[in-house]
Amino acid sequence: MRFMMIVKATKNSEAGVMPSEALLGAMAKYNEELLKAGVLLDLTGLHPSSKGTRVKFSGGSRTVIDGPFAETKELIAGYWLIKVNSREEAIAWAKRVPFEPAYGAGEGEIEIRQLFEMEDFAPSAAVERHRELGKDLAARK
User: Fold this and answer.
1) Mean pLDDT per 10-residue section of the chain, whose length is 141 residues
2) At 58, is the secondary structure helix, strand, or coil?
3) What does DSSP assign to residue 121?
4) What is the pLDDT of residue 78?
5) How far is 76 from 73, CA to CA, in rounded Å?
6) Which helix (H) or strand (E) element contains residue 60?
7) Sheet containing 76-83: which strands, arranged edge to edge?
8) Among the CATH numbers 2.70.70.10, 3.40.50.2300, 3.30.420.10, 3.30.70.1060, which is that of 2-116?
9) How far is it, in rounded angstroms, from Cα 24 to Cα 5?
10) DSSP state of 38
11) CA distances from 111 to 12, 29, 85, 93 (A)
12) In this structure, how many other beta carbons lie within 10 angstroms of the beta carbon of residue 80?
């Protein structure tokens, strides 16, 4: 099962405040633990929404909206993509994220979302086409 552990944005991350050296070190250690456990697929942090853009779709029209975006609690500051055996295992990994004040992290929130797998969908020509695209993508790595 694949899960995305989504790091929710904070006032500091939206202001472009970089993590402390202590937090970066703690995160590096945590990321190494994920890697050594064989569960880490991908990870990265994101620039603040002031550098982002949204494309809104409504009634056939498309509207481009430049950041920043107002609702910090709805924004993403980064993510981990992990492959584990259960939702409970994903939660256990999320609980280990080093968001302690000792590392300069005053607050933090991780949202955990399971990714769909092709097996979750009923067989169809469209699903098979997506499966083939996935194989093409994997071959490019």
Assistant:
1) 95 90 94 98 96 95 93 88 98 94 81 94 91 88 75
2) strand
3) S
4) 96
5) 8
6) none
7) 40-45, 76-83, 2-8, 110-114
8) 3.30.70.1060
9) 18
10) T
11) 18, 21, 18, 12
12) 24
